[in-house]
Design goal:
By secondary structure, the protein is of the alpha+beta class. Helix content is 49%, strand content 20%. The two termini are 21 Å apart.
Amino acid sequence: MYILLAILAFGVLIVTHELGHFVAARACGVKVNEFAVGMGPAILKKQGKETLYSLRILPLGGYCAMEGEDAETGDPRAFTAKPAWQRIIILCAGAAMNFLTGFVLILCIAGNASFTEPVIYGFMDGCPYEGEALLQTGDRIYSIDGHRTWFTTDVSDYLGRGGDVHDIVLIRDGHRVKLTDVSMPLVEYPAGEEGQTVWRYGLYFAPREFGLWANLRYSWYEALSFVRLVWRSLGDLLSGAVGVREMSGAVGIVSYVNDVATTAETAEEASFDFLYIFALIAVNLAVMNMLPIPALDGGRVLFTLLTAIATLILHRKPDPKYEGWLHTAGFVLLMGLMVFVMVNDVLKLVGK
């Protein structure tokens, strides 16, 4: 059941992405020739007034085929005939819809989420960081070493990175207070009656707030946290900290979703995990689609800007067919990467 739900969820994310392009294109007066969900041969078709709507056999993608998307056609309603700013809006609309979908999914589970914002509620006995020169009750830890802290997990994460000395920005009584070169190593505290100890920073954080505004704030922060996670993962991939073989595609994600959902103790917990994972995937798709790579929306935005600059300098518009060739080459390479990742996912499943 969870495998089918995961495949259906992927379809929903594809539809929302392409729907963003479709709605923006129609709003800007661009003719849409086909709105397709899936790739490969069509299994269902319906001709609208001017747009062909189709469902295709492979649930691994989709597209919104606009008139004159990669070549001049002479049609005044063609994509290439529109001003650069309208084309950029159309191109960004898909990623915006994915991000919005992720935000809405987080909002659906926000009421039951156990998050804590980094507002200091108190200190453990003997905590060395309590005092007028350092931390006080009521302080909100705004950032650590330039990294925004939205949740208490961010505090422990960034205090644990790059040594024990940090630059910390606080919100205290409505004003920003910057602490420079603060030494904050973990401190050993007693735990239990048999001499056990634990390592802590010694901070207690205020319990979470409830209500619509608190849930909206939490959902927004979590969506931004997902964006940061995607960028960090890309950095790890480019730096070699994570290998290409550790990447997962649709097959690996569906398998992971099934494993997480089936091991949940209750149906409510399974639903929570399911929505949380696909909220992360939705935001991931938004970020990845805006990378400046040919065939992706970000690559098309980049070429739109370059074309506008070239037109101003050369006083003539470059032939869009050359851009079309680059996007075709990028698409082929991306399909090759998808196949590699899919095969890698299958081999990992077989090796379990």
